[in-house]
Specification:
- The protein is of the alpha+beta class.
- The protein folds into two domains: about 55 residues, no CATH class; about 120 residues, Heat Shock Protein 90 (2-Layer Sandwich).
- It is built from five helices and eight strands, in the order H-E-E-E-H-E-H-H-E-E-H-E-E.
- The strands form two sheets. It has a five-stranded antiparallel sheet with strand order 4-5-6-8-7, with helices on one face. Strands 1-2-3 form a three-stranded antiparallel sheet.
- The mean pLDDT is about 80.
Length: about 200
């Protein structure tokens, strides 16, 4: 018995140039758009039905609002039994409170991958910070998703395959990523540009 009416074969047939897969660590279905659609970002959902809807919605565009530059929040995640889920929930709640729903899909995807990497390859303490900043020129808003952990070892890119390896590929599809070592470990920062208008 499946939890969806759209099959993977039907979805890949409808969107033949998209990379579509199911993540074992996150439990989510993911769809990465082809390179000839640079304005679109990777999309994730718990079901294939919703993923199909989200792809169609992404192709039709989005409506934008002005962001609250300077808003920020930080959470400790390693003390939670389900740190990835806790991080996603915290980010979703913050974006709802800040009325930044247009960043939701991108931010949740990046959060999932960053926290998963920190839990799998890093060490406590693991903290997540979400902040609305600007691009350095003071004009264009960006969303910062930062995960710090206690390991100084930087993330290592590896070829995607059946055993994973999609993390950094996915994150870089959404954001500019920097890794900054510090006395207690490292911070991985992903800066997400403002989603394009329709």
């Amino acid at each position: 018995m499946t939890d969806h009416t759209v099959s993977l074969a039907q979805l890949t047939g409808r969107f033949p140039h998209w990379l579509i897969w199911h993540g074992r660590s996150t439990g989510l279905w993911s769809a990465l758009p082809p390179r000839d659609l640079p304005a679109l970002r990777l999309i994730q959902s718990a079901s294939l039905d919703d993923l199909a809807t989200r792809i169609a919605h992404a192709l039709s565009g989005r409506t934008l609002q002005a962001p609250p530059v300077g808003a920020s929040a930080t959470w400790r995640l390693d003390e939670d039994s389900w740190p990835v889920r806790a991080g996603r929930r915290a980010v979703a709640d913050a974006l709802d409170a800040w009325r930044l729903g247009r960043w939701r899909d991108d931010a949740l995807t990046v959060t999932s991958e960053l926290v998963t990497n920190a839990v799998s390859h890093g060490s406590p303490p693991i903290t997540l910070t979400l902040a609305v900043t600007t691009n350095g020129h003071g004009a264009v808003p960006e969303l910062l998703v930062e995960v710090t952990d206690g390991s100084p070892d930087p993330p290592v890119r590896r070829p995607p395959g059946d055993d994973g390896g999609f993390g950094l590929t996915v994150i870089n599809a959404y954001a500019d990523v920097t890794v900054t070592p510090h006395r207690g470990g490292k911070a991985v920062r992903a800066r997400l540009p403002e989603p394009p208008a329709a």
